[in-house]
Protein backbone atom coordinates (compact mmCIF):
# COMPACT_ATOMS: atom_id res chain seq x y z
CA UNK A 1 0.00 0.00 0.00
CA UNK A 2 1.32 3.39 -0.96
CA UNK A 3 1.70 5.77 1.95
CA UNK A 4 -0.40 8.90 1.75
CA UNK A 5 1.59 11.99 0.76
CA UNK A 6 2.60 14.13 3.70
CA UNK A 7 1.54 17.81 3.36
CA UNK A 8 4.38 20.26 3.07
CA UNK A 9 4.14 22.24 6.31
CA UNK A 10 6.42 24.91 4.90
CA UNK A 11 3.63 26.07 2.63
CA UNK A 12 1.22 28.67 4.02
CA UNK A 13 -2.31 27.37 4.47
CA UNK A 14 -5.63 29.05 3.92
CA UNK A 15 -6.90 30.27 7.26
CA UNK A 16 -10.47 30.62 8.37
CA UNK A 17 -11.90 34.17 8.51
CA UNK A 18 -13.94 33.26 11.59
CA UNK A 19 -11.54 34.85 14.15
CA UNK A 20 -11.56 38.11 12.21
CA UNK A 21 -15.36 38.00 11.92
CA UNK A 22 -15.73 37.48 15.67
CA UNK A 23 -13.49 40.46 16.37
CA UNK A 24 -15.36 42.66 13.89
CA UNK A 25 -18.73 41.71 15.40
CA UNK A 26 -17.40 42.51 18.87
CA UNK A 27 -16.01 45.82 17.65
CA UNK A 28 -19.28 46.83 15.97
CA UNK A 29 -21.26 45.93 19.12
CA UNK A 30 -18.91 47.99 21.31
CA UNK A 31 -19.11 51.02 19.04
CA UNK A 32 -22.88 50.87 18.74
CA UNK A 33 -23.31 50.40 22.48
CA UNK A 34 -20.96 53.29 23.21
CA UNK A 35 -22.87 55.53 20.81
CA UNK A 36 -26.05 55.03 22.88
CA UNK A 37 -24.41 55.99 26.18
CA UNK A 38 -23.79 59.43 27.68
CA UNK A 39 -20.24 60.63 27.13
CA UNK A 40 -20.54 64.20 28.42
CA UNK A 41 -23.00 66.06 30.64
CA UNK A 42 -23.10 69.84 30.30
CA UNK A 43 -24.32 72.15 33.08
CA UNK A 44 -25.18 75.68 31.99
CA UNK A 45 -26.95 78.81 33.08
CA UNK A 46 -28.35 81.76 31.13
CA UNK A 47 -28.60 84.06 34.17
CA UNK A 48 -32.37 84.27 33.88
CA UNK A 49 -33.83 80.93 34.81
CA UNK A 50 -32.78 77.75 36.50
CA UNK A 51 -29.56 75.97 35.64
CA UNK A 52 -29.83 73.55 32.74
CA UNK A 53 -28.26 70.12 32.23
CA UNK A 54 -27.77 68.49 28.84
CA UNK A 55 -26.54 64.95 28.25
CA UNK A 56 -24.51 64.28 25.13
CA UNK A 57 -24.59 60.74 23.80
CA UNK A 58 -21.66 59.14 22.07
CA UNK A 59 -23.40 59.53 18.72
CA UNK A 60 -23.51 63.29 19.40
CA UNK A 61 -20.03 63.75 20.83
CA UNK A 62 -18.49 61.61 18.07
CA UNK A 63 -20.85 61.90 15.12
CA UNK A 64 -19.11 59.19 13.10
CA UNK A 65 -19.40 56.54 15.82
CA UNK A 66 -22.64 54.98 14.59
CA UNK A 67 -21.69 55.12 10.87
CA UNK A 68 -18.38 53.44 11.70
CA UNK A 69 -20.21 50.67 13.56
CA UNK A 70 -22.38 50.14 10.48
CA UNK A 71 -19.26 50.12 8.32
CA UNK A 72 -17.90 47.24 10.37
CA UNK A 73 -21.17 45.34 9.92
CA UNK A 74 -20.87 45.83 6.16
CA UNK A 75 -17.26 44.66 6.34
CA UNK A 76 -18.44 41.28 7.65
CA UNK A 77 -20.41 40.65 4.46
CA UNK A 78 -17.52 41.93 2.33
CA UNK A 79 -15.12 39.61 4.13
CA UNK A 80 -16.87 36.51 2.78
CA UNK A 81 -17.13 37.97 -0.72
CA UNK A 82 -13.48 39.03 -1.09
CA UNK A 83 -10.35 36.95 -1.49
CA UNK A 84 -6.60 37.47 -1.49
CA UNK A 85 -5.35 41.01 -1.85
CA UNK A 86 -8.86 42.44 -1.66
CA UNK A 87 -9.20 41.03 1.82
CA UNK A 88 -5.96 42.73 2.76
CA UNK A 89 -7.34 46.02 1.43
CA UNK A 90 -10.43 45.45 3.57
CA UNK A 91 -8.11 44.95 6.53
CA UNK A 92 -6.56 48.36 5.90
CA UNK A 93 -10.02 49.96 5.78
CA UNK A 94 -10.92 48.33 9.09
CA UNK A 95 -7.67 49.64 10.60
CA UNK A 96 -8.66 53.17 9.55
CA UNK A 97 -12.07 52.68 11.17
CA UNK A 98 -10.31 51.59 14.36
CA UNK A 99 -8.14 54.70 14.34
CA UNK A 100 -11.14 56.97 13.74
CA UNK A 101 -12.83 55.48 16.82
CA UNK A 102 -9.78 55.37 19.07
CA UNK A 103 -8.68 59.01 18.68
CA UNK A 104 -11.80 60.77 20.10
CA UNK A 105 -12.20 58.10 22.79
CA UNK A 106 -8.63 58.59 23.97
CA UNK A 107 -9.01 62.38 23.81
CA UNK A 108 -11.96 62.29 26.19
CA UNK A 109 -10.31 59.79 28.53
CA UNK A 110 -7.24 62.00 28.94
CA UNK A 111 -9.43 65.06 29.53
CA UNK A 112 -8.97 66.81 26.21
CA UNK A 113 -12.44 68.35 26.13
CA UNK A 114 -13.46 72.00 26.03
CA UNK A 115 -16.44 73.91 27.35
CA UNK A 116 -16.83 75.57 23.94
CA UNK A 117 -17.23 72.23 22.16
CA UNK A 118 -19.66 71.03 24.81
CA UNK A 119 -21.70 74.22 24.46
CA UNK A 120 -21.78 73.88 20.69
CA UNK A 121 -22.86 70.23 20.70
CA UNK A 122 -25.49 70.89 23.38
CA UNK A 123 -26.85 73.67 21.13
CA UNK A 124 -26.99 76.19 23.94
CA UNK A 125 -28.04 79.78 23.14
CA UNK A 126 -25.34 82.43 22.96
CA UNK A 127 -26.27 84.01 26.28
CA UNK A 128 -25.80 80.71 28.15
CA UNK A 129 -22.64 80.04 30.08
CA UNK A 130 -21.27 76.57 30.70
CA UNK A 131 -20.78 76.22 34.43
CA UNK A 132 -19.30 72.72 34.43
CA UNK A 133 -18.77 69.68 32.23
CA UNK A 134 -18.92 66.10 33.48
CA UNK A 135 -17.27 63.34 31.45
CA UNK A 136 -17.88 59.61 31.81
CA UNK A 137 -15.08 57.08 31.38
CA UNK A 138 -16.97 53.89 30.59
CA UNK A 139 -18.56 54.87 27.22
CA UNK A 140 -15.31 56.07 25.58
CA UNK A 141 -13.47 53.11 27.12
CA UNK A 142 -16.04 50.81 25.50
CA UNK A 143 -15.43 52.54 22.17
CA UNK A 144 -11.69 52.10 22.69
CA UNK A 145 -12.17 48.37 23.29
CA UNK A 146 -14.12 48.21 20.03
CA UNK A 147 -11.32 50.06 18.24
CA UNK A 148 -8.75 47.60 19.56
CA UNK A 149 -10.88 44.63 18.46
CA UNK A 150 -11.24 46.14 14.99
CA UNK A 151 -7.49 46.74 14.80
CA UNK A 152 -6.74 43.13 15.74
CA UNK A 153 -9.17 41.96 13.04
CA UNK A 154 -7.38 44.17 10.51
CA UNK A 155 -4.05 42.57 11.45
CA UNK A 156 -5.49 39.10 10.84
CA UNK A 157 -6.73 40.15 7.41
CA UNK A 158 -3.60 42.03 6.33
CA UNK A 159 -1.23 39.26 7.42
CA UNK A 160 -3.34 36.40 6.07
CA UNK A 161 -1.72 34.41 3.29
CA UNK A 162 -3.16 31.67 1.17
CA UNK A 163 -1.57 28.52 -0.14
CA UNK A 164 -2.34 29.42 -3.75
CA UNK A 165 0.62 31.70 -4.62
CA UNK A 166 3.25 29.52 -2.91
CA UNK A 167 2.03 26.28 -4.51
CA UNK A 168 1.75 27.91 -7.89
CA UNK A 169 5.27 29.29 -7.76
CA UNK A 170 6.63 25.88 -6.78
CA UNK A 171 4.96 23.99 -9.59
CA UNK A 172 5.49 26.70 -12.18
CA UNK A 173 9.24 26.27 -11.71
CA UNK A 174 10.30 23.33 -13.97
CA UNK A 175 13.44 22.55 -12.01
CA UNK A 176 11.52 22.42 -8.74
CA UNK A 177 8.87 20.21 -10.32
CA UNK A 178 11.43 17.74 -11.67
CA UNK A 179 13.24 17.61 -8.32
CA UNK A 180 9.98 16.99 -6.50
CA UNK A 181 8.97 14.21 -8.91
CA UNK A 182 12.42 12.58 -8.61
CA UNK A 183 12.04 12.58 -4.84
CA UNK A 184 8.58 11.02 -5.10
CA UNK A 185 9.84 8.25 -7.42
CA UNK A 186 12.80 7.54 -5.14
CA UNK A 187 10.59 7.41 -2.05
CA UNK A 188 8.11 5.16 -3.82
CA UNK A 189 10.92 2.84 -4.92
CA UNK A 190 12.25 2.62 -1.39
CA UNK A 191 8.82 1.68 -0.08
CA UNK A 192 8.25 -0.98 -2.78
CA UNK A 193 11.61 -2.43 -4.00
CA UNK A 194 11.44 -3.98 -7.45
CA UNK A 195 8.00 -2.55 -8.21
CA UNK A 196 6.92 0.24 -10.51
CA UNK A 197 6.10 3.62 -8.98
CA UNK A 198 2.47 4.27 -8.17
CA UNK A 199 0.11 5.60 -10.83
CA UNK A 200 -0.06 8.99 -9.10
CA UNK A 201 3.73 9.33 -9.17
CA UNK A 202 3.84 8.29 -12.84
CA UNK A 203 1.32 10.96 -13.80
CA UNK A 204 3.22 13.59 -11.80
CA UNK A 205 6.43 12.60 -13.56
CA UNK A 206 4.86 12.85 -17.00
CA UNK A 207 3.36 16.23 -16.13
CA UNK A 208 6.80 17.46 -15.03
CA UNK A 209 8.40 16.36 -18.30
CA UNK A 210 10.09 13.23 -16.91
CA UNK A 211 10.01 9.67 -18.32
CA UNK A 212 9.47 7.52 -15.20
CA UNK A 213 9.94 4.27 -17.16
CA UNK A 214 13.49 5.10 -18.16
CA UNK A 215 16.32 4.58 -15.70
CA UNK A 216 19.72 6.11 -15.34
CA UNK A 217 22.65 6.44 -13.02
CA UNK A 218 21.25 8.16 -9.97
CA UNK A 219 18.42 9.60 -12.04
CA UNK A 220 14.74 9.04 -11.33
CA UNK A 221 13.99 9.18 -15.05
CA UNK A 222 14.98 10.78 -18.30
CA UNK A 223 13.93 14.32 -19.07
CA UNK A 224 11.72 14.51 -22.13
From TrEMBL:
Keywords: Membrane, Transmembrane, Transmembrane helix. This is TIGR02234 family membrane protein. The chain crosses the membrane at residues 20-39, 59-82, 89-112, 136-158. InterPro entries: Trp_biosyn_TM_oprn/chp, Trp_synth-assoc_CHP. Residues 215-224 have a biased composition (Gly residues). It comes from Antrihabitans cavernicola. Pfam families: Trp_oprn_chp. Residues 191-202 have a biased composition (Basic and acidic residues). Residues 166-224 are annotated as: Disordered. It comes from the Bacteria. The keyword Membrane applies.
Amino acid sequence: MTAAPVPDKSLPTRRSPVPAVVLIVAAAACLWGSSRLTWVRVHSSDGLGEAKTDSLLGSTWVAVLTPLALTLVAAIAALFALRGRLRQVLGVVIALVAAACAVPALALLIGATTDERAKQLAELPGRSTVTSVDTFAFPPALALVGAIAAFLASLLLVRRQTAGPAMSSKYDNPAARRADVARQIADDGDDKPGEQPSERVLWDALDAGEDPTAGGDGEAGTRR
